[in-house]
Amino acid sequence: MASMFAKSSGAPAGVMQPSQPPQIERYEPEEEKPKQPKKVSFAQFDPDAQMQMNSMFMSPMMKELEAQIKVNTDMLDRMNKQMEDERKARLKEKQTAHIPEALKGGLNKLQILDTHSKAALTGHSLAAYVSTLDEDNLKKFTSKITQDCQLWLSRLFRFPDSSPFYHEEHKDGLVKICRMALYQKYPKYPVEGFEALYSRPPVIYISSAAMPGLSNYLCLQLGLPLSSICNVPCSTVNGTTSIMDVGMLEKLIQDDVSAAKTPVLLVGFAGSPHLGSVDHLDELRKICKNHKIWLHVEGNNLALLATVSIPNSVEPATSGDSMTLRLGKWIGIPGLPFITLYKSSDPALELAAGLSTFNPQLKLNCLPLWIVLQSLGHDGIVDRIKHCCNLAEKMHEILEKIPTIQKIGEEKKEESEAKTIKEMIFVAIDALFVFKMASPTIVFKYVEDNSTGAVEIAPYSPVSPQEDIEEKDKLKTYYNALNTWLCDTLFYENSSVDIELIDVENEGSCIKFSPLDTAQVKGTVIEDIEKFGENLKKQIAILDATVLQRDRFCAVVEAQDNLRIVEMPSWAGLGVVQYMPEEWRERMTDLPDNAKRDINNINTELVKRLHSKDTAFSLGFNDENIGCVKFGLITDDTDLEELIGLVYSVGKEIEESSKFLEKLSEKVQKGIEEANKELHKEMDEKLMQEGLLRQVPLVSSLLNWWSPPPKDSVKGRTFSLSSGTMASTEKTYKYHMQIQEDDAPPPSSPSPSHPVNTYKEVLKPVKSQTKSAGAVKANLTEQFNSPSSSTQEKENSNPSSPQPEQKSMETQSKDKQHPPDLK
């Protein structure tokens, strides 16, 4: 302890003086001073104060720190889990690269089934199991099942005294009904065949709003010519395009009767396949009754017959002769067959037409339907149909509030104001007793905003009618593209609301929403429709901003010298432009091939650079397959001048860089040609120096052995991109490195007798020197013993190092053997 303090006081090591202990005691309090705060500790004497301090300061800090650590830990865990999942996905993809995509699974997810759907699927298995019963019990079982289904369906859809026919193909029910109608009109048709139809050919009337291919399918299945099908046009008086024209139908029937033809059947729609329009079924029923024509009705609106309040437009369907129901689609139960209800009093005709059978196993195809009808009950079926109608009603409300959305297929009726008391009474009665419901099938499209007033063309305008028609076609194509984009965007953003893009005659591309077909399968609810409406308003705002700025966009682009508008109506965006270089700016048509290539390269590079800044830019090609810049959709706050200025500036930069590359390529081409000429010249000189004998294969080897030829003097050429000059590669191959010489001449030129010695002095380390192990050891020993000796003395004392005089003599001898080539 004493020696330690002695060392700390500055005393020499190893020296101890007997008179120093009092000094040691004097330094002890100084060493004890840092320990005084430890003796006076507030926490040691007051534990409550320590707890209070911890609760006031330490506990909140620790809790906050713990919470922050937990957040960071959770974030790291999520990142690790995501990275691990990605790693596993990559590994799995690598391991299953040889497996076809269809066998990997996960492409199509199956629908999650509820208890009623599971019961329907169980019914199929049960039907197969019940078919193993003995014949008597099987007949009793099938008779019970079919009678229950017949009674329940006829009561549910208010179609009394009807018989059901179950089929898997939607069109098979109409085929069987047509065949039975033919048997009624032509009793000898089952025996005589077509000869019974020859004298008075049959005619089947189908609305032009039917699905394409229906006429051909009926003729193929019934063995009739296409002349037996009459397509009735639709009326366009009230703004719709899918309601059958009753007046035209009456005229066609009279013409066929006058031409000795027999009207057999009429197909009407309570909800057309595309637009969901309902024909005037009450008038069609009267026409069919007068001419003894079979009336068959199809459509999704027939589902409303099961509700408590039936719309007046659909109610006449119950007075028809047959109807086809898609109950499985309407209530969202898979595996249920299509149902065709028909009224007939002749079982023999039913059996001949294939509408009934005696085979009990075939009758069991209604067993899943029998189970579902009991499982859901009347209230369950009605609730599901009402839910679809409520979704459609909510969608109607949303679309009504958007001025640029036009609903297609709705019949527009002008409501006249009641002026007399009699008219007011009729209006009141109509409101009380006529029940109207919005169509469960909605078709709409985005149109131009006409609320501010459409621009009308003056009668003295120079625009010709043909140009006006072309302009309208371009505008229609453009809005078709916008509706296509709108449908795709809404479909991906709202997975629970199933919409599809359809092409309507005279209307173009439209968006269709049919909840009776998709709502139960997708599980669509009112909240999904509200979310769909919010997304629709956002996308409509983008479309409105884009359409509003199109004319201004064209004006700004035309003000730029190097930009031009490219007509591309099918592009759903702001527009399409093309950057034209200065060389071809004045010449817009009849461009040569090199001009097309230059313009295409510039615009392709322009899109690549713009896309890295904004993904709204994309590459397109005009009619001549030349690249151009496509502008995407914009918002209200987009600055057009800045956007177009960016395209112009980047295009100008690319054009200037391309000009520099062209000049550089020309310079390189000239340098290559010059180098080839010099190399050919040197080869000719070499041939003249060596002589003709050295070119003969056998003689050249003997001559080269006897008299070795001089060193090859033909060298390559290097081209400097910075200076544009050409130099020989002789120094590069000689010194095994590139030597860059200054353009300015050296202050003093080397002696002509030693032309290469200057480079050898500069590049001294190029030639490697070898030493033996003993020499290296002796050299190191000498350096250790005499550290003050100079480096030059070491080199002179080393016997293995060559002397400068010897080195210069070797250089002179080499120069004498190979004198430099002087040209």
TrEMBL record:
Highest taxon of source: Eukaryota
Q: Which residues form the PDXDC1/PDXD2 second domain?
A: 439-547
The residue stretches assigned to a coiled coil in this entry are 62-96, 658-685
Task: Keywords in alphabetical order, please.
Answer: Coiled coil, Decarboxylase, Lyase, Pyridoxal phosphate
* Modification N6-(pyridoxal phosphate)lysine occurs at: K329
- Which family is this sequence assigned to? Belongs to the group II decarboxylase family.
GO BP annotations, alphabetical order? carboxylic acid metabolic process
- Give the classification, highest ranks: Eukaryota, Metazoa, Spiralia, Lophotrochozoa, Mollusca
Q: Where is the composition biased (Basic and acidic residues)?
A: 812-823
Native organism is Magallana gigas
Required cofactor(s)? pyridoxal 5'-phosphate
InterPro entries, alphabetically? Answer: GrpII_AminoAcid_Decarb (IPR050477), PDXDC1-like_2nd (IPR055103), PDXDC1-like_3rd (IPR055102), PyrdxlP-dep_de-COase (IPR002129), PyrdxlP-dep_Trfase (IPR015424), PyrdxlP-dep_Trfase_major (IPR015421)
Compositionally skewed regions (Polar residues) per UniProt: 780-811
MF GO annotations: carboxy-lyase activity; pyridoxal phosphate binding
The name on file for this protein is Pyridoxal-dependent decarboxylase domain-containing protein 1
